[in-house]
Amino acid sequence: MRRRNLLILAGSGVTAAGLAACSGGSGSGGGTGGSAGSEVEVFTWWAQGSEKAGLDALVAQFEEDYPDFTFVNGSVAGGAGSAAKDMLQSRLQAGDPPDTFQAHAGEELADYIASAQIEDVSGLYDEYGLNDAFPQDLLELLTVDDMIYSVPSNIHRSNMVWTNNQLLEDAGIDPSAIPADVDAFTADVETAAASGVTGLSIGMAWTQVNLLEAILMADLGSEAYNGLWTGDTDWNGADVTTAIEHFETLMSFTNSDRDGLDWTDATQMQIDGTAAYNVMGDWAVASFQQADMVANEDFGFYPLSGGEAIFGFLADSFTLPVGAPNPDGTKAWLDTISSEAGQLGFSLAKGSIPARTDVDTVEFPTYQQTAIESYANDTICPSLAHGAATPVRWLNEITDATSQFTTGANAAAGYQEQLASIAESNLSA
């Protein structure tokens, strides 16, 4: 039987202003009633690399579907959305929302819901046929008190290892041999580093949290990992201690300029042949493809594993903010990003897989084919670094603690105690 360990969002008890009427197009063109030239500001952090390529694909589909609307790019670059989220919160508090904004499906939306800053869009799910198009477990993840507050454009996987196969061969490592656990992976990274290259490329704090979550998934297993976010797993436990020790060791083989780099820079180190390994979400695959590198020849990939097949889950999604200047334009955008054509074009460009189950995926390259199979069969764990596991505040506190640890301001024992204290305060809030 297929196992699913999804965290269901805790109900906030807040009812946002509902949609009086969910009018919208079918994604086949003609618009939703907006006048010619009506602007739709789409707020994202997709400003570079494969993220920008994915956004461009969505914009092209939107302009084809809804020529009466004008797309306005509200993207803000930097730090997996940290800069964008800060600016967005300022705008929402000032009563100046964009027409729609990017978020991650899952607990990241909890604060927006509790603050009554986004609308219930479940009526659009009925209108656009999304209740049949999306898998039931995804619908459950999206549902809060019988309401849904965002529309996913895709599904990503966070716990992936990427390899430069030539550098592995040069170091005497068989690129086709997948490490059985984190100890074996760490040994391979150390071997690669001893050959004179960066063993593990990484960037600023959020990419380090992405590495941490992948290690926690592998070392703890899905049940205990998911328990970290519900209080069922002790953050002071021995398994977490082991994971932090693995994290500390792996960080010792990373590039010294990491805190000044983003994920694109860390991936570029592999493309340039200066770093053997990287642990990053599967948006990285598009960068390899754009560099004309061939999967399983020039670069390799596999999930960081402790023996259990785990899919580190996140999904990009879009919202209808309360007070959006052009709600009809927002609904048109949500129609496009949830359509078969929109999800196909977006995921092909970005390295993800469609959230819809009815998209023809024959065009997808090697990596995405494996991700489709894994999502259908592996145990699902929500991503910490990308908003599925915790509200924004909890993630920000973990990110700050991780930055203190990786810059030497805190020892491993103190770091674990800090993570436990953060969990306790957030679970009791």
Automatic annotation (TrEMBL):
Tell whether Signal is among the UniProt keywords: yes
> Keywords, A to Z?
Signal, Transport
Query: Can the keyword ATP-binding be found in this entry's annotation?
Result: no
Query: What domain of life does the native source organism fall in?
Result: Bacteria
Per the UniProt record, one Pfam family is: SBP_bac_1
Describe the family membership recorded for this protein in Swiss-Prot or TrEMBL.
Belongs to the bacterial solute-binding protein 1 family.
Protein name according to UniProt: Glucose/mannose transport system substrate-binding protein
Species the sequence originates in? Brachybacterium fresconis
